[in-house]
Amino acid sequence: MVAPRWRKVGRDLSTHRFRTALVAVSIAIGIFAVGVVMGGREILVREFDADYAQAVAAGATYYTGPFDDEVVRRAGDRAEVSRAQGRHETTLRYRWRGSDDPATLSIVAMRDYADIAVQKILPEGDLQWPIDRGEIVLEGSALQVGEYRVGDVLEVETADGTKVPLEVVGFAHDLNAVPAQFVGAETGYVAFETLSDLEEPEYYNSLLITFEQEDISREDASRLAADIRSDVLEARGVAVFGTSVPEPGSHFLGDIFKAVSLLLLALGVLSLALSGFLVVNTVSAIMAQQVRQIGIMKALGGRTGQLTRMYLVTVAAYGALAVVLGLPSAALAGRYFTEFAADILNFNVTSYVPPAWVTVLEVSVGLVVPLLAAIIPIRMGSRMSVVRALNSTGMSAPSFGHGLGDRLLGLVRGLPRPVALSIRNTFLRKGRLLLTLATLTLAAAVVMSVVSVQGSINRTIADLEEWWNYDAQVVLGQTADSAMVEREVVQVSGVTAVESWSGHPVAYTRADGSENQSMSLFGLPYDTTFVRPRLVAGRWLQAGDTDAVVINSDVVKDEPAIALGQRFALTVAGEERSWRVVGVIKGQLSGAVIYADRDSLGDLLGDQGVNRVLLRTELHMDDAQQAAMEAAEQALDEAGYQVVSTRTQSGLSQTISEQLGILVTFLVIMAVLLAAVGVIGLTGSMTLNVLESTREIGVMRAIGAQHRSIYQIFMSEGLVVGVMSWGLGAVLSYPMSWLLTGALADSTQIPLTYEFSWPGVAGTFVVIALVSAVASVLPASRASRVSVRDAIAYE
Amino acid sequence: MDDSVTKTPLLRLHDVVKVYDTGEVPFTALRGVDLEVETGEFVGIIGKSGSGKTTLINMITGIDHPTSGEVVIDGTPVHELNENQLARWRGRTIGVVFQFFQLLPTLTVLENVILPMDFCSMYAPKERVDRAMDLLEQVELADQANKLPAALSGGQQQRAAIARALANDPPILAADEPTGNLDSKTADAVFGLFERLVMQHKTIIMVTHDNDLAARVRRALHVADGEIAEERIHRPRHGA
Ligand SMILES: Nc1ncnc2c1ncn2[C@@H]1O[C@H](COP(=O)(O)OP(=O)(O)OP(=O)(O)O)[C@@H](O)[C@H]1O
Ligand SMILES: [Mg+2]
């Protein structure tokens, strides 16, 4: 026969089913959080790394004039180079399923898809290499933006306006392709033979290499890339238009990825802490209820050690139950979450099994954390002297009477009785109040911070829209005469103003000899009204500025050597010239840009051509912008200009907010999870309050309290806690959202303008009031149903 | 030490003082109580509410510690034991019966009776059920053994509590108003049970408010203002 004290443990668990469920759920939340968040993070990082490793990202990419396999072989033969791959890349416009809006397609052509040395492309589903002439394979991220299906025909428009149909034969995965949802352009793969149909030469025009040295620094990589450019490419007469050397070993989405994984970590730790609070709360309450029974057992000969063991086993049982609940639900949710994240970040997940240590962590969160949380209440309970235990009423001792709380209560005497009573009750259970408050406050602070982060993003985009005093932009394939191009576009209906700029690739050589090719130089009329520069220092361009340029803050950040008042050398159109910085303006998400007066620049370079046309439309609405831009594109097309890309500013700001939106999505998930923990915490402690007050309630009922007044007491108690946590959370959310915005800006390299969201604080108030009302309904109605008999029969 | 020359009482309180300082001003609930009780005595403690009866019996059971003075029971200096030693000692030496029965609500009557044997590792686990059934037989509750306490009447619960107090066959039974919550007929039955136990050489110390019952114990101690104000010996049944 099982010893009766162990039977008591089992019987207590099974008799108080509601309470057992409450504790198990509180613990399970912690397991769930760890499982989903830490597990999800580990799976994401592991799968991303695996995908990244198999994809063989390029160490350097050259955008060049035509070259052939011989050049690729020569590049691969270099000692510093481990692999080399040539491909043909071009950007064309296409229509799909009879739609009138042309979209942008990045076309990649390779000789042999089954044997790619750098930046591998994996077939998805039943797709088999090779791709035949007239066929196209779309990068999988296209499915995030459109419902493409095998068999669809894309009507691709060549440089001279011929329409070439390409049939979609399948999808492929290219981790290093920029996902369609980020750039608003799909990537498609075609056979080399298809190039002639597209009126493209059957040559390579980009070279991708990887370096032999695995842990190469970015500086070394840039230097090597420059050597190879001159020794291998330029030496063979291959013109190099641009070189891109990314941070070695890091994916272009790596920063966003790091931000997400950081958020997940923070979320995991937070919810773990919150679940710890819940567990401490619940276990203390249970111990408080057990005090009298502990007294009896002690009077019957039970020793502290025996009692401690009984309650530790009880808690371990809660933990085991929580593990049974938490592990599978975490696994399931973790899978959904990972799929979601992998879809957004466009990478393949081959296994959803979290590493063993996460499972071990989940189990120990289920078993160890509650035991740790329970140690103090259990020790206090089982060490309590017999007299005190026996005299306990089963309610937590009201250490009330002399304290600050009492004096505070003096201030609230004017309140209606139920409210005054509930405030009194709220303060009576100080410890639990503190924990519940801490939980809810954190949850509220996170919710408000997320709103502020979103507010900062909106603010940043508003700044951006303020800077763009134009609606759309068309980029041309070759340079053109500005007056002629402008005349062409200004005639288009819906267009109210036009301006043309020249854009030049530039190279900046640092003092150490390494080269930066990621800046751009724009020539624009010094008196432009198409952008509204926000000066950080110095002045804007003036008439007669010849070698004077204005730089944006991204230039200052990337190249600290280029500063206001300084001269610096820049290679433009193959010639190195000296420039003088006269002003610094705030960067507007366009990367590092140097601005010069268009006409002076044209004189200097001996080329007055422009290659981008900015236009303003009558109606500044998305549809109108789109329509005017398409009309402009068509007009330019008909006039014989090649349009490389077009964009509307509203479309661009949408793309940017979508990128940031991914992070906000994760933040919202985090906030919702924390809020759920907070609400369960509030419901839990309210329920405990009701359980503990059963006798009080019975007495109140016996002296004539109505169901309604009891209900009101507990409802207002929940609301008081909710409102308090809102107030504290609002205070906490100020620094929290500031830090969060900073962290996001750092990790995404998108400089965000911080803005605290007051409407968010107000909105959260409404949400919290509602949520705490909802959390209190069940306990309050439970309380109002307590009868006098229940109360007396209780324990 | 001189006492040992004459005879050793089962229970001896010497100059026991209890001061409560939980309130605003310290309150002296016992003012130097001296008491000796022999094996097989049936001692009743009576007195007005607040006079110190519960405090006194708590000194005997070790449920509470005296502020000063000595409590020696069956050779054990109870006032010197720590909580754990006390629990163990109490479990084997004194059966405690409470006014509100205090059966553990989630254990059956039988399990409640076995519990003290479990805590104090008394009797072989196999014997425990038989012994508990014997005890329940004695208090005429054998047929209720597998019920939960909530399903029993007050009198039945108190008899179950007495059976539980007897579980480890302690020489002493201490009861604080065991009949306080029972009607007079049921109280009578419980009292009868105590009388039978005294005949089996148990020593019983019982606090009571019931004057009728107080008149039936052999030795009645009248407590007033924290002192034993008066002691009455009724019709002796067997020699002391
Ligand atoms: N924990 C305590 N703290 C302070 N004073 C106490 C405490 N317990 C008892 N007292 C006081 O000590 C005195 C004796 O209490 P005790 O409980 O022994 O009385 P009693 O004779 O058992 O009364 P009743 O017949 O009502 O049970 C009372 O005046 C009481 O107020
Ligand atoms: Mg008393």
What does this structure look like?
Chain A is of the alpha+beta class. In chain A, the strands form two sheets. Chain A has a six-stranded mixed barrel with strand order 2-3-8-5-7-6. A six-stranded mixed barrel of chain A has the order 12-14-19-16-18-17. In chain A, strand 2 (about 80-95) and strand 3 (about 105-110) form a beta hairpin. In chain A, helix 14 packs across helix 17 (about 620-640). With about 240 residues, chain B is α/β, with parallel strands linked by helices. Helices cover about 35% and strands about 25% of the residues of chain B. Chain B has helices spanning about 5, 55-60, 85-95, 110-120, 125-140, 155-165, 185-200, 210-215, and strands at about 10-20, 25-35, 40-45, 70-75, 75, 95, 170-175, 205, 220-225, 225-235. In chain B, helix 7 (about 185-200) links the parallel strand 7 (about 170-175) and strand 8. In chain B, helix 4 (about 110-120) crosses helix 5 (about 125-140) and helix 5 (about 125-140) packs across helix 6 (about 155-165). The two termini of chain B are about 20 Å apart. Residues about 1-5 of chain B have low confidence and may be disordered. Chains A and B meet through helix 1, helix 7, helix 8 and helix 10 of A and helix 3, helix 4 and helix 5 of B. Bound molecules: adenosine-5'-triphosphate and magnesium ion.
Poorly predicted runs of chain B are 1-5
Please identify the structural class of chain B as seen in this structure. Answer: alpha/beta
What is the count of helical runs of chain A?
A: 22
Low-confidence stretches of chain A: 393-413
Bound molecules: adenosine-5'-triphosphate, magnesium ion
Helix fraction bin of chain B: 25-40%
Biggest interface pair, counts: A-B, 29 and 35 residues
- Radius of gyration of chain B, rounded? 18 Å
Number of helices of chain B: 8
Helix content of chain A: 40-55%
E-strand count of chain B = 10
Assess the beta-strand content of chain A as a share of residues.
15-25%
How is the biggest beta sheet of chain B arranged?
6 strands, mixed
Number of strands of chain A: 21
- For the record, give the distance between the C-alpha atoms at the N and C termini of chain B, rounded to a whole number: 21 Å
Strand order of the largest sheet of chain B: 6-7-8-3-9-10
Structural class of chain A: alpha+beta
